[in-house]
Amino acid sequence: MKKSKGLKTESFYKIFIYVALIALATSIIIPVVWILFASIKENSEFYGNPWAIPDGFHYQNFVEAFVEARMGDYLFNSIIVTGLAIVFLLVIALPASYVLSRFRFFGSKFLNSFVKAGLFINVSYIAVPIFLMLLDWDSLMQTMFDGGSFLNNRVMLALIYASTALPFTIFLLSSYFETLPSDFEEAASIDGAGYFKTMFSVMLPMAKPSIIIVILFNFLLFWNEYILALTLMPGENKTLPVGLLNLMAAERAAANYGPMYAGMVIVMLPTLILYIIVQKRLTQGMTVGGLKG
Fold first, then answer.
1. Is the separation of the CB atoms in 213 and 172 below 8 Å?
2. Which of 54, 56, 87, 291 is 20 to 30 A (C-alpha) from 126?
3. What is the per-residue pLDDT across 238-273, written as a single tens digit (0 to 9) for each?
4. Dihedral, CA atoms, 262, 263, 267, 269, nearest 10 degrees?
C-alpha cells in the first residue's frame, strides 16, 4: 500500500515537472518566434492580426536597421568590446583563480575574501563614479596632450567590463580548480615542469568545461550590458543594446515596426547561435564539477 502511494506521488511529481518545463519553454519560445516573424513583416501587416504568419520575407527591414539605423556599426562595436573584454578577463582571471585555489601564501585568505566581497557589488551603482573618474582623466589628458581618450573608447569599456566580471569569474574558476586532484601537478613537477608550464599544459586543459561556462556567461553579460555602455560611450561608438533602444524609440515614434523588430533579431541572434554551438559542452561543464567533487 505504501509502495503504491509512493509510486503515485513520484508520478505526480514527474507530471508536475514536465508541465512546468513545458510551460517555461513555451513562454520563452513563443516570444522569440513572434519577434522572428515580426522582423520580416511589412508595416501594414502589424495593423491586422498580430499572430498572423508573414505574407512574405520583407528583408528591407534588416537593410533599414543595418544601414539607416546604423545597427551594423553598433554590431561591430559590440563584437569588438565583447571580444576584448573576454580576452582581458581570461588573461587575468585564469592565473589568478589558479593561484588562489592551489597555493597558500601570506595574504591568500585576504585576497580570497576580497574577491568574494566583489560579488556583492552591483555594477549599476558604480557607473556614475566610473564615469566621473574617466571624465577627470580625460580632462587631465586634454590639459597635457590636447585630447582625451578614456570616454567613448571601446578598449576602455572592454577593460571595465572585464574588471567588473573578475569577482564572479575568479570565484567560479577557483571553485572548479579546487576540485581537481593534485596528482597531475605532482606528476608534472616530477617531469621537471615549472608552475607556468603546469598551469598552461596540465591544469587549464582540465578546466576547459569551466572555462567554456565562464566565456558563455560573460559573453551574455557583456553583449547585453546597457548601463555602462550608455554612460561611458556618449559619442558614436555605441554598442548594440544602446543602439537598439535608440532604434526602438525612433521607429515607434514613426510607427515603423518592422526595422524595430529586425534590430531585436540582430541583438538576439548571436547569443542564440553561440548557445547552440556550446550547448553540449555547457551541459558537460555544469555537471563535471559535481562528479569530480
1. yes
2. 87
3. 898 888 887 877 766 666 788 888 888 888 888 888
4. 10
User: What is the residue extent of each domain of the chain?
Assistant: 59-292
CB 228 within 8 A of CB 133: no
Q: Which of 83, 218, 219, 220 is nearest to 155 (CA)?
A: 83
Query: Cα–Cα distance between 166 and 4 in angstroms, integer?
Result: 52
Which cell goes with 66?
Answer: 543595418
Residue that is written with C-alpha cell 567554456 in the block: 212
Residues ≥6 apart with Cβ < 8 Å to 188: 197, 198, 201, 202
User: Distance between CA 175 and CA 285 in Å, rounded?
Assistant: 13
Give per-residue pLDDT as tens, 1-43. 555 665 667 778 888 888 898 998 888 888 888 888 888 888 8
Identify the burial level of 236 via C-beta atoms within 10 angstroms of its C-beta, where 0-12 means exposed, 13-18 middle and 19 or more buried.
exposed
